[in-house]
Design goal:
This protein has 337 residues and is an alpha/beta fold. Helices cover 26% and strands 27% of the residues. The protein has two domains: 152 residues, 3-Layer(aba) Sandwich (Rossmann fold); 157 residues, Dihydrodipicolinate Reductase, domain 2 (2-Layer Sandwich). It has eleven helices and 14 strands. The strands form three sheets. It has a six-stranded parallel sheet with strand order 2-1-3-4-5-14, with helices on both faces. Strands 7-10-11-6-12-13 form a six-stranded mixed sheet. Strands 8-9 form a two-stranded antiparallel ribbon. Helix 6 packs parallel to helix 9.
Length: 337
């Protein structure tokens, strides 16, 4: 079989990890890389991604040129969260390329709260004969797909709780700054007040997917977001400095309500250098029902958690019908050989 040819759109921390991961996969060939930082333009993609070897691929800042000059099948969209997310995805779709995005997390389950966006993307994908999927670790796996799958062995479900404690050292300076890391508590609260896109995801995305799967109709949703401050001076792997007392992380809780009770609760703590703050990396899914279930992922430190599901979903996207799909629509992705 011919290899699936992939372009990585956004070769930052996660995009670089994807490139390195795909170099070891038998059925995938990386053929292009789109970068945003000027210092990466014109360099070999292997060097940019930290692959330890040359790939003979020049990193470009021009998506149009990459899409038109490279024969490709799939674009892994790992760009920055911005107002340009939809147009970036649409540009790839109009070029006849399948898209897997970890960036526009609205598309993980958009039909309820972003129906117009969903319709635009779905119609464009069908018109061009391609498939679009939004997935990652959260949303796209731990906070939606995994609880839904495990609910399948329950006679009944009363409540779903997902808790995660994650090391956000992986993320680059621009991402951490956008989320208020390195600021005072007051600056953090001012910057993130009323943001439509939270550090984890729009609150309704995962709540909607779980509720829809269980046949629940949520009466309301709520979200709280609080900063975590650093106990000591830190320097991230990408060179960002965080002074003691400054924000080095966050705790976000989103809840879906029915009859005045929280029936879906998603809690995420994301911190730079967890161990220095006395925290341990873990993810926990609890289902209260018949029977009660507890699923625990301990010591989940690997950066690969954040991007592997998107790479492993490539075969499912290639075989899917054209249009906008979610992880609920596709066969379960497994680790690629």
């Amino acid at each position: 079989m011919e290899k699936v040819r992939v372009i990585v759109y956004g070769v930052g921390a996660m995009g670089s990890g994807m490139v390195r991961m795909m170099l070891d996969k038998e059925g995938i060939e990386v053929v292009g890389g789109i970068v945003f930082a000027e210092e990466k333009v014109g360099r070999d993609l292997g060097e940019v991604a930290g692959a330890g070897r040359s790939l003979g691929i020049v990193a470009s800042s021009d998506p149009d040129t990459v899409f038109s000059s490279m024969k490709a099948d799939v674009v892994l969209h790992v760009a920055r969260i911005s107002r340009q997310m939809e147009s970036e995805i649409m540009k790839a779709v109009e070029a006849g390329l399948n898209v897997i995005t970890t960036t526009d997390i609205r598309l993980a389950y958009p039909w309820i709260h972003w129906p117009e966006l969903a319709q635009r993307v779905d119609e464009a994908a069908k018109r061009n004969g391609v498939t679009v999927l939004s997935t990652g670790f959260r949303p796209g796996f731990i906070t939606d797909l995994l609880p839904i799958v495990f609910s399948g062995i329950c006679a009944s479900v009363e409540k779903v709780v997902v808790r995660g404690v994650e090391d956000w050292t992986l993320f680059g300076i621009s991402t951490l700054m956008r989320l208020g890391f390195g600021n005072t508590v007051d600056e953090f609260k001012k910057r993130l007040a009323g943001r439509p896109v939270s550090p984890a995801s729009p609150p309704s995305t995962e709540l909607d997917m779980i509720a829809d799967a269980l046949g629940w109709e949520l009466s309301e949703t709520s979200r709280t977001l609080e900063p975590v401050t650093s106990k000591k001076r830190k320097r991230t792997r990408h060179g960002m400095e965080i002074e003691p007392g400054m924000v080095c992380g966050f705790k976000e809780v989103t809840s879906g309500m029915m009859d005045g009770q929280a029936v879906i609760v998603l809690e995420l703590i994301g911190v730079v250098d967890l161990e220095e703050e006395g925290l341990e990396s873990s993810n926990f899914v609890s289902i209260k029902g018949e029977p009660d279930l507890d699923i625990v992922m301990k010591d989940s430190k690997s950066d690969a958690l954040f991007y592997s599901h998107a790479v492993n979903a490539i075969p499912q996207v290639m075989e899917a019908k054209p249009g906008l799909v979610t992880v609920r629509d596709l066969p379960v992705a497994a680790a690629l050989k």
